[in-house]
Amino acid sequence: MPQGHFRDTEVTKMSSSMPGSYIYNECIRPWGARGSCKLIIDQLSRVLRLPNILEWIDPCSSSGRIASCLRSLRLNIITNEPYVGVWRTEDIAADLQLDPTQPGTYQSWQAQGHLTGGLISQPLPRLLDIVLPLAVLTEVQVVCYYVPASYVSSPTSARLAWMTRLKTENRLLLIMGIPKQASIAESSGIWFCVFRTPELRALHSRMEYFQEDNCVVFAE
Asked: Which helix (DSSP H) or strand (DSSP E) does residue 71 occupy?
């Protein structure tokens, strides 16, 4: 989990973003819905060997369309979403219906043997400081969350300390850039990837960092 001293405003902002809060907005538009899921998955697959992971879980599946993209690549993915119908006008059928902001959810998946592969998602930005660290604490091989650029460029003090530690441990991989023929709205975020060990990072990554078709990949 991120370590450091959270300011009162940071704690208030995170708590007010949680379902059940009196100012929680159930009609909020998920930021990730504005762009093409295929573009960002293509971007990720240029660097990560996605088929190496035999099973993926999307803990926040209603925030994006990642599951359909992975299935089109014939990859196995389990979806989770307890708030059916909240983020979109139509209901989204999910394989699991547990709260991704609760530690018990991941403990349950661990006990059921679901956490042997990877976690991939496009969560709402205000939940990232909760759901991303919880995902990283699990025993999965890799966590790949698509986050706004500001999550990395303007971190809280606690988040910065956490990211620095992951970088020092050689477990962090950031993938960013706008692929050719894509608009800024279609690829304005960053793939925030955390591996359980440096060895898994080397195993699952194509380490030829390059600049091609306006897609820039940063190792750290």
From this structure: helix 66-72
In 10 A of CB 218, how many CB atoms?
12
Alpha carbon distance 130, 136 (integer Å): 10
Contact 123, 62 (CB under 8 A): no
Checking DSSP bridges between strand 215-218 and strand 211-212, what pairing results, if any? antiparallel
92-139 pLDDT, tens digit each? 578 888 999 999 999 999 999 989 999 999 998 989 999 999 999 999
What is the C-alpha separation between 35 and 151, in angstroms, rounded?
18
pLDDT digits (tens, 9 = 90+) for 23-56: 444 444 344 444 568 888 988 988 899 999 999 9
pTM, two decimal places: 0.78
Question: Residue 2 domain-assigned?
Answer: no
Asked whether 189 and 147 are in contact (CB, 8 A), the reply is yes
* Two tokens, residue 213: 């078709």
CATH number of residue 27's parent domain: 3.40.50.150
What pLDDT does 14 receive?
52
Count of domains forming the chain: 1
Q: What is the chain's mean pLDDT, rounded?
A: 78
- As a whole number of angstroms, the distance between CA 24 and CA 5 comes to 25
**CA-wise closest residue to 63 among 127, 158, 11:** 127
Q: Identify whether 1 is part of a domain.
A: no
d(CA 217, CA 145): 15
